[in-house]
Design goal:
Blueprint lengths: L1 H8 L3 H9 L3 H8 L5 H13 L3 E6 L7 H20 L6 E5 L10 H18 L3 E3 L7 H14 L5 E4 L5 H8 L5 E5 L14 H17 L3 E5 L3 H13 L8 E5 L4 H9 L4 E7 L4 H10 L1 H12 L3
Helix pairs in contact: 1-12, 5-6, 8-9, 9-10, 12-13
Bound molecules: dihydroflavine-adenine dinucleotide.
The site of dihydroflavine-adenine dinucleotide has 24 residues, from strand 4, strand 5 and strand 7.
C-alpha cells in the first residue's frame, strides 16, 4: 500500500517540485546518488575502486521523449567512458544503460544505434555495458536488442527481474557461456497477470532463478540487499563450486555499505551500482518505496525549514 503511494508520487510533477525545492532533501539525495556531473561520478568511482569494489555507473534519466535528449544521453555515456579509461578505472568500472533513456519508447531503431555506439566505446575503453531492465512492456524489446548486441559485444550484460513470472524461463535461455546476467527482484509496479505480488513469492522465484544461473554456464550477478538471499547465494555458490571470478554480488550506492565491505572482505567480487546526474527524482522515489526506514529520514528532511 505504502509502496504504491510512493510509486504514484514518483510520477507526480507537483510532488517532484516539492522534493526538489525542500532545503534538506539534498542530504538524502547525496546518500543514494553520487552527484550531478561526470566529475562526481569519477570521484565516487575512484573511491569505491580504492576500497576494493567494482562499479557500474548509471547516468540517471529515463523515458526520454525527443531525439535530442536521446543524443545527449548517448554523448554523456561516451564522455563518461572516455573519462573512466583516462583515469585508469576500467575494467573495474563499467556502465549500466536504460534503453528508454536512449529513445526505446518512441524510436527503437534510434535506441539500438545509440546503445551500439555506447557498447563500441565501452569495448574501446576496455570495459562492458549492462542493459538495465525497465517495466514489463519493454522486456521483449530489451532482450531482443541484447541478443543482437551480444553478437558483436559478447560481454554485454542483461538484467532479469525475479518478480516476473517469465523470468525462470529467461534465466534458462541466458545461462550460457560468457553470458552476464544480473538478477534483481524488480522495482516497478507490475500487474498480477505478469508478476508475483507477494514478497514471499518474489523471494522464492529469486531462489529458483539463482539456482538456474549459478548451476548454468554464464556469469551470474546477484543484485540484492536482502540478507537471506545473500546468504543463500553464498551457500549455492559454494555448492556449485563458483570461484570468486565466476560470479559477483551487486548492491546500490549508499545501501548497506557495511555489507558491501563484508562481502568484499570475504573474497567475493562486489560491484556497486552508482547513479549520478540531475534527473535523480524517479530513482530516489523507487529506493524510498523499497524501505520505510529511508522514508522516515526523507520525511524529516522535507518537513525541516531553515
Ligand atoms: P528488498 O528491498 O526486498 O529488501 C530486502 C531486505 O534487504 C530488507 O528487509 C532489509 O533487510 C535489506 N535492505 C534493503 N534495503 C536496505 C537498506 N537501505 N538498508 C538496510 N537494509 C536494507 N530493478 C529493476 O527493475 N531493474 C534493474 O535494472 C535493476 N537494477 C539493479 C541493480 C542493482 C545493483 C541492484 C542492487 C538493484 C537493481 N534493481 C533493479 C532494483 C531491484 O529490483 C530492487 O528493487 C532493489 O534492489 C530492492 O530489492 P532487494 O533485493 O534489495 O530487497
Amino acid at each position: 500500500m505504502l509502496r504504491s503511494v510512493i510509486l504514484a508520487a514518483s510520477r507526480s510533477p507537483r510532488f517532484e517540485r516539492l522534493v526538489e525545492t525542500a532545503p534538506y532533501t539534498r542530504d538524502v539525495v547525496r546518500r543514494f546518488v553520487a552527484g550531478t556531473g561526470t566529475d562526481d561520478a569519477l570521484r565516487a568511482t575512484r573511491q569505491l575502486v580504492a576500497d576494493g569494489l567494482a562499479v557500474s555507473l548509471d547516468h540517471l534519466g529515463e523515458d526520454t521523449v525527443t531525439a535530442e535528449q536521446a543524443n545527449a544521453v548517448r554523448d554523456e555515456y561516451l564522455g563518461l567512458l572516455g573519462g573512466l579509461a583516462q583515469a585508469g578505472l576500467t575494467p573495474a568500472a563499467e556502465v549500466s544503460v536504460k534503453l528508454s533513456a536512449l529513445g526505446q519508447r518512441f524510436d527503437e531503431r534510434l535506441a539500438r544505434e545509440h546503445v551500439r555506439a555506447i557498447c563500441a566505446a565501452a569495448t574501446a575503453a576496455g570495459t562492458t555495458v549492462t542493459l538495465d531492465m525497465e517495466d514489463h512492456t519493454t522486456t521483449d524489446s530489451t532482450l531482443d536488442i541484447l541478443a543482437e548486441l551480444r553478437k558483436d559485444f559478447p560481454g554485454t550484460g542483461a538484467v532479469l527481474q525475479a518478480y516476473l513470472r517469465r523470468t525462470e524461463s529467461d534465466c534458462r535461455e541466458l545461462a550460457t557461456a560468457g553470458s552476464r546476467v544480473r538478477l534483481c527482484k524488480g522495482a516497478y509496479k507490475e500487474p498480477e497477470s505478469v508478476a508475483y505480488q507477494s514478497a514471499r513469492e518474489v523471494d522464492k522465484s529469486y531462489v529458483r532463478c539463482l539456482n538456474i544461473l549459478l548451476s548454468g554456464a554464464g556469469y551470474p550477478m546477484v543484485a540484492t540487499h536482502d540478507p537471506t538471499l545473500i546468504a543463500i547465494a553464498e551457500d549455492r555458490a559454494r555448492w556449485f563450486d563458483r570461484a570468486p571470478d565466476e560470479f559477483e554480488f551487486q548492491l546500490l550506492y549508499g545501501v548497506r555499505p557495511e555489507e558491501q565491505a563484508r562481502l568484499a572482505g570475504a573474497g567475493h567480487t562486489v560491484r556497486v551500482y552508482v547513479p549520478y546526474g540531475t534527473d535523480w527524482y524517479g530513482y530516489l522515489m523507487r529506493r524510498l518505496a523499497e524501505r520505510p526506514a529511508n522514508l522516515a529520514f526523507f520525511a524529516r528532511a522535507l518537513a525541516t525549514r531553515r
